[in-house]
Amino acid sequence: MKKSNTILGLNDSNSAAAIIQDGRLVGMAREERFDRIKFSDAYPTAAVNFCLKEAGMTLKDLDAVVFAWNPGHELEPQDSAAAVRYHKHFLHYIPNNLLRHVGGEKQNKRIAGIREHIRFLEGDLDIHFLQHHPCHAASAFFISPFDEAAILTIDAYGDDITSEFFIGRGNTVTSIGRTLFPHSMGQVYAAVTQYLGYRANSDEWKVMGLAPYGKPVFYDQFEKMIRFDREKGELRFNLDYFMYYVWHPRRYSDEFIRVFGPERQPGEDLTEHHWNIAASFQLRVEDVLLDMCRYLHKKTGLDSLCLAGGVAMNSKANGRILMESPFNKVWIQPSADDAGGSIGACFYYWNQVLGNDREFYMAHDYWGPGFSDEEIRKALDDSLIPYERIEEIETAAAQAIAENKVIGWFQGRMEAGQRALGNRSILADPRDPAMKDKINQMVKHREWYRPFTPSVLKEYQGEWFGNAFPSHFMQMVYPIRPEKHDEIPAVTHVDGTGRLQTVEKTTNPRYWKLIDEFRKLTGVGLVLNTSFNDNDEPIVCTPKDAIRTFFGTGIHELYIGNYKVTKQRRQDSPS
């Protein structure tokens, strides 16, 4: 079999594209960053264009196009109306949308599209539909630092599977157990999210953020609904309480309402009752995931664990897995959700299908678009705003944060994952007890209870947190040392924890230097970090996005490339 050199991976749930060359990731981006629709599920036209440009390719130059779903499972679902409910007719959808990326003069696009469609039907374009959970497993293991590891993938569902256990060794992942739809942790989490008045499959992290404010008084009820069969290694749910597997606008049943009371409507006040439901449910989810990991460790005897799937984005559970499960090392890549299936499909095809050795480790998440100083300066000039060039931009930004200013920080290539990791970030002083409320109100325009991340220098992590194991991608919650709570109140959640990001000099020297300069000024080796966006807006991608969000929010100053931007009017601009 021919060994592919360039492979394009696609996913359209959290729509994204990724591209690898000779077994190494070249670019990855989510469509939402381009079309500005959060969690966009449109065909990833702009993301594909970015990936092709980054690789210096056209679609016709590719060796393979791979997709992180197998539509054969979706077309005739077994015992599942929900599979049809979300079905997008992939076999028709992909070929027709791929035509957007093939050549032809502007005036001959329709003719060119017909010609290229015929070429596709004749098999000229090498496209592969891969199974969803093996793609998750590949995204978790093949780009991890481990030579061998146990793997747990867990989400709503994919190809009728909702969770799966694997062993990863070298260039293969091997399934050793699975749970089938409709027994789905991801769908149940979406149901509880909807019951609490939020958007299912979008706002699950709000439930996680709300949970520490409540008490697990309903734990026993959730324990009866959600369990893990330790003998069979399968998730089991009492489906009498849920409606996600039938045609119904509500994902929870009348029986669920009978147990917990009337559902909260969007926009209604949150009460202690809602806090307690969130707390009880989140704790039960964590305990079940811990049971799954203990089972997997017993079955494999391995020391390292990789996680993927939407449920693996639950950073509170991930922190407990690291600290309480038998695994000593846990790795979760930054796009563990479905968008990361685009990466997983590429590496599954390259390593497992084609049998190539692994050569790539994802040490950072900066795989999206980047912009030169010239491009940034042009965007600033076009916007008629004042700015100044600063050589030591990190020092100036650190000084502004120490002066209690909230700053926008736009540098290098955009993060590919859901979370801003120091290239598209809003930064502030973690020492100010009022800072959390200040940013939520004047910048993020979001719920009062949602916490912010501490970005901490690797060298000082153990000084501030109860665990020194690195969390480079903001995927784990650790306890903050009790004696430090009063020193960094803006990033200390109500339960004394923080969803940290470990910052290393080798992977992001500019961000590392900013935090180190802040440390020199204040003695604190961490800053408050949140994504550079307004509420319900994707993270900013381009300089124009950054400028627009800067002026549309209460951010005090913008540090973009080597330029500092303020909100004073330019002298030569029209009045």
Write the layout of secondary structure elements.
Blueprint: E1 6-11, E2 16-21, E3 24-30, H1 32-35, H2 45-55, E4 64-67, H3 71-75, H4 81-85, H5 90-98, H6 109-121, E5 127-129, H7 132-141, E6 148-158, E7 161-169, E8 172-180, H8 185-195, H9 204-210, H10 219-225, E9 226-229, E10 234-237, H11 254-260, H12 272-300, E11 304-308, H13 315-324, E12 329-331, H14 341-353, H15 373-382, E13 387-389, H16 393-402, E14 407-410, E15 424-428, H17 435-444, E16 453-457, H18 461-464, E17 476-479, E18 497-503, H19 509-522, E19 526-531, H20 543-552, E20 557-560, E21 563-565
Helix pairs in contact: 7-14, 10-12, 12-13, 16-19
- Give the CATH class of the largest domain: Alpha Beta
What's the rounded overall pLDDT mean? 90
Structural class based on helices, strands and sheet pairing: alpha/beta
Biggest sheet character: 9 strands, mixed
Reported CATH architecture of the largest domain? Alpha-Beta Complex
Task: Kindly report how far apart the N and C termini lie.
Answer: 67 Å
Query: Which strand-content bin applies to the residues?
Result: 15-25%
The CATH superfamily of the largest domain is identified as: Carbamoyltransferase, C-terminal domain
Would you tell me which CATH topology of the largest domain applies? DHBP synthase
Helix content: 25-40%
Total of domains: 3
User: Which segments are poorly predicted (pLDDT under 50) over 5 or more consecutive residues?
Assistant: 74-93, 99-122
Principal-axis shape equals: globular
What is the spatial order of strands in the main beta sheet? 13-21-20-14-15-19-16-18-17
Number of strands: 21
Radius of gyration: 24 Å
